[in-house]
Design a protein that fits this description.
By secondary structure, this protein is α+β, with helices and mostly antiparallel strands. The longest helix has 20 residues, at 655-674. An 8-stranded mixed β-sheet has the order 32-33-35-34-36-37-38-39, sandwiched between helices. Strands 5, 6, 7, 8 and 9 form a 5-stranded antiparallel β-sheet that branches. Strands 1-2-3-4 form a 4-stranded antiparallel β-sheet. The chain contains 13 helices and 39 strands.
């Protein structure tokens, strides 16, 4: 059947923008005009702008880089300092780029999108800037000594707005993938061609080193500059979860690294490491999905296929990540969604393993700022819990651990307790979830909001959220974080169980948690809200159309909703490996059963829903949320719609916009779940 709302896919068409602005006005009048909303928005903005919040650094040798936003610098400052200075209570920062000043001087709505610093000299950087927060970026070369951008006519690297990749080889050459013209991008809008570009030459004359196919997700080229182990490499992502990796030989030839295409491949000096996403039978042995394997790189290249197993999963434990110091590997695991850390030491007789540090329960502890080439065996730790602000520590393998910084507590957590429960899904799978609530409210069902994602092997772990504390927990609400299938909390099979035709199991998991919350007396269907964004927005759309009786209100952020056309919009084609191809009748057969846009019914009773998106989101098309809102409106359902005219996939371009978005969500849930039907 024809789609009467295709016109809402025209992102910047004035008719579509007028439609969005009209709905924004309704939202502002209903939710943003209240004194309660303004007070919460100010508190959240004060938190985001707080000069006392931790400036999380990225270590590059002696320098610690940081991107910082506050009330005086809403677009932000890119700056750096030394480790010794950073350890002080009030470190002195060397500001490299003031984005607010830059945007004003150039009359552009620049949003910071990252920096790639040339190592080891650290005298140049490739700066990415986005107009309004989009994924597409402008890339410019910056001189860290003169504090100026180097103009193209002066030999500086420059790429116009596109979804580009630009990485250093050395001062006078880079690898580049960008929009070189017709046929140079994949169907997903990412680079299909990788080239070597030498300083002082036109981009059009850059030398092609690798090409993928139009149906690929992307290709990438890079350079490992580890002294004595320099390697040029290329990768072709054939879909979102599979890639082929090659070494680029001196004669220009390619050497394929023959490992499973769905594995994660890495190397450091003499060691090749492989994280398996599916079982692998090789060299007379069988290695399970989720295992981490190691081999001598040169022996592997010579044909050796005997691997040492550095980690093997079990029913409760999965690999969360790993990284190298100069002499050790640090391993992070999730044991029922709670982190444990270990040190692995390679030796002549194999690898040894020991605990790195005690990690608190109901919290996430991560290892950051591993810099094996310039910082030896030093690293940093971050520890964060639902009610415990993040602590940043400095340490080294075998050395002392010292606390560097700790975040401010932004809400009253006194009496707030965290419990972990497990719900039984329809197929018997036990699905974990965390519940935050005040101890005095455990005896009575109350307003509750549950969040979910469930896709792309993204693991959701405990973390401090000042906004949810201020906006929900302090009001007496209960907050729930779910760990449904589709994530990586129990390894790759937790994800692959719900790909494509089995997607419905992720939805069943979320619904099972909703029912379990009611069965435990934590809430009632009328008092239960749900929130999710992006892939989690798809989850919310399915909850609305398939499980409406379970919820009293839903917030659906930057969502995928029209699964008939998702692969035709922006980066959608890159997600076919996750959802399936709706152009294939046998795959649309299962996609069409849950696609929210195609399953809205005029005679159904739905809970109130708030849909939010961003005009400048060039990853998930705003047309998904626009068309869903228009269809709900046509059929007379209760909905609200808000579109940020900038902000990208994150939904906000600065702290003020982030504060508004957060306050809007909690005000919506407060009116719907605390105040109930009388406010609808």
């Amino acid at each position: 059947m024809s789609d009467p709302y295709l016109w809402l896919e025209e992102v910047t068409d004035e008719r579509a923008l007028d439609w969005a602005r009209a709905h924004n006005g309704v939202v502002a009048e209903r939710f943003a005009a209240a004194d309660r909303f303004g007070a919460l928005e100010r508190r959240i903005l004060d938190m985001l702008d707080d000069d006392a919040k931790v400036a999380y650094p990225g270590r590059r040798g002696k320098w610690l880089y940081n991107f910082w936003r506050d009330a005086e610098h809403p677009k932000g400052l890119w700056r750096r300092t030394t480790f010794e200075e950073y350890a002080k209570s009030a470190p002195a920062w060397d500001v490299l780029i003031d984005v607010d000043a830059l945007a004003a001087a150039e009359d552009e709505n620049w949003v910071w999108a990252g920096a790639n610093v040339l190592r080891p000299a650290q005298n140049r950087a490739l700066i990415s800037l986005s107009r309004g927060g989009a994924d597409a970026k402008v890339v410019r070369e910056f001189d860290l000594e003169t504090r100026e951008f180097i103009a193209p006519e002066a030999g500086g690297y420059y790429l116009p707005e596109a979804k580009s990749r630009l990485s250093w080889i050395d001062l006078d050459s880079v690898y580049v993938g960008t929009d070189f013209g017709p046929g140079s991008l994949t169907d997903s809008g990412y680079p299909r061609v990788a080239k070597r570009w030498r300083r002082g030459t036109e981009l059009s004359s850059a030398e092609t080193v690798f090409e993928g196919e139009s149906g690929d997700v992307s290709v990438v080229a890079g350079y490992d500059r580890t002294p004595g182990y320099e390697r040029h490499y290329l990768a072709r992502a054939t879909d979102f979860f599979n890639e082929q990796v090659y070494l680029l030989e001196k004669d220009g030839g390619l050497r394929h690294l023959d490992v499973p295409t769905d594995s994660d491949l890495s190397w450091y000096k003499d060691w090749l490491t492989i994280t398996l996403k599916s079982a692998w039978d090789i060299g007379g042995r069988s290695y399970p999905a989720g295992a981490l394997l190691a081999n001598d790189f040169e022996k592997f290249l010579s044909g050796a296929r005997e691997f040492e197993v550095l980690f093997a999963p079990d029913a409760h434990t999965a690999l969360h990540g790993y990284g190298w110091t100069e002499n050790y590997m640090i391993l992070s695991t999730l044991e029922d969604v709670q982190t444990k850390l270990y040190v692995l030491t390679p030796g002549a007789d194999g690898w040894t393993r020991r605990p790195l540090a005690d990690t608190p329960p109901m919290a996430t502890t991560g290892v950051t700022n591993l810099d094996p080439l310039e910082s030896g065996d030093e690293f940093m730790l971050t520890t964060s819990g639902f009610t415990t602000p993040t602590t940043l520590l400095a340490s080294s393998v075998g050395g002392a651990t010292t606390r560097l910084k700790q975040e401010t507590a932004y809400f009253d957590a006194d009496g707030i307790e965290t419990d972990q429960f497990f719900a039984r899904s329809d197929d018997g799978t036990m699905v974990p979830y965390f519940v935050l609530r005040h101890r005095d409210r455990k005896s009575t069902p109350g307003p509750t909001v549950m969040s979910g994602y469930g896709g792309f092997e993204v693991s959701r772990t405990p973390a401090y959220s000042g906004a949810s504390g201020m906006g929900w927990l302090e009001r007496g609400g209960t907050w729930v974080m779910t760990n449904i299938r589709g994530g990586g909390e129990y390894g790759p099979e937790w994800h692959t169980q719900v790909q494509k035709a089995n997607r419905y199991k992720a939805f069943q998991d979320f619904a099972a948690v909703a029912r379990d919350l009611v069965a435990r007396g934590i809430t009632t269907p009328e008092q239960l809200g749900a929130v999710g964004g992006s892939n989690g927005g798809l989850l919310m759309g399915v909850m609305l159309t398939r499980y409406p009786e379970l919820f009293g209100a839903i917030v659906c952020q930057v969502p995928l909703l029209d699964m008939k056309r998702y692969h035709l919009l922006l980066a959608g084609a890159s997600w076919i490996a996750e959802y399936g191809d709706p152009d294939k009748p046998e795959e649309w057969e299962y996609i069409g059963k849950y696609s929210p846009y195609q399953n809205v019914r005029a005679d159904a009773t739905y809970p109130p829903i708030l849909l939010t998106t961003s005009t400048r989101d060039d990853r998930v098309h705003p047309g998904h949320a626009r068309k869903m809102a228009a269809l709900l409106e046509e059929q007379g359902h209760t909905f609200w719609y808000h579109e940020n005219i900038e902000g990208g996939h994150g939904g906000a371009a600065d702290n003020k916009q982030s504060a508004f978005q957060a306050a809007l969500i909690y005000e919506f849930f407060t009116q719907m779940l605390f105040e109930g039907n009388k406010s609808r």
